[in-house]
Amino acid sequence: MAFCIIARFVATVFWGLVANGMKMSHGYATGLPEDRWFLLSWKHLLMIWHAGLRGGIALALVLQLGDWVDKENAPGTAQVLVNATLVVIIVFLLIFGGSTAKCLKALGIPMGQEYPEDYLLKDSELDSLQSCFKVVDERFLSPLLVGSSAERSMSSENVSVPKAPSRSELGIEARRPRRSSLSFYQKPPTADDD
Predict the structure, then answer these.
(1) Helix (H, G, I), strand (E, B), or coil: what is residue 171?
(2) Cβ contact 51:78 at 8 Å
(3) Residue 179: helix, strand or coil by DSSP?
(4) Which of 13, 69, 79, 94 sits between 20 and 30 A of 130, alpha carbons compared?
(5) Separation CA 183–CA 21 (nearest Å)
(6) 37-41, 118-122, 188-192: range with lowest mean pLDDT
């Protein structure tokens, strides 16, 4: 368990610093005020580390182990691994899940505040990334997969879709009403029912 906790901490701090570096470079490049950079503080990184220790991925991986585990080791090894993983998950849920709200309060991270949906995206570096993807889509992907816009407009102007004929025009009688799905509970009609 200690290895999982330490590895998660190292990965969280590393990627948090990478994210902060990207946010800072975007903030400098666009001239945003520093309060709009939304940098991850050490408190946020600590809570990302703390709140992410659950074990769902480990359970998914251990459930994918094949029969080779029992063949390579003793029979029942796969089940022992599944059981051990479940114990670790339960312990992590009790410790980390049960203490999340208390840790947020102790670190002074606000909880339950409402923000507009686009609060974090207003000054996001995703704008430039999104514009790059739009250019790639318009110049390369759409012409390759759909065709050029000129071809699409010409084909849409020249093609007319005929109206489908109605059932009566085709000489098809109206369908009989369906029997109720609960019809097996009903007694069949008899001559006395008229």
Answers:
(1) coil
(2) no
(3) coil
(4) 13
(5) 68
(6) 188-192
Among 43, 64, 57, CA closest to 92: 57
Q: Which is higher by pLDDT, 128 or 152?
A: 128
| Residue environment code for 40-67, b if the CB has 16+ CB neighbours within 10 A, otherwise e | beeebbbbbbbeebebeebeeebeeeee
User: What Cα–Cα distance (Å) separates residue 56 from each residue in 3, 52, 89, 94, 190?
Assistant: 16, 10, 8, 14, 60
| 185 pLDDT higher than 50 | no
For the record, the structure tokens of 60 come out as: 């998914």
**Amino acid making up residue 127:** D
Helix extents (H) in 31-177: 42-51, 56-63, 68-72, 77-92, 98, 100-107, 126-136, 142-145, 149-158, 167-170
Question: How many alpha carbons lie under 13 Å from residue 168 in its C-beta half-sphere?
Answer: 0
Q: How far apart are CA 185 and CA 178, in angstroms?
A: 15
3-state secondary structure of 15: helix
Whole-structure pTM value:
0.53
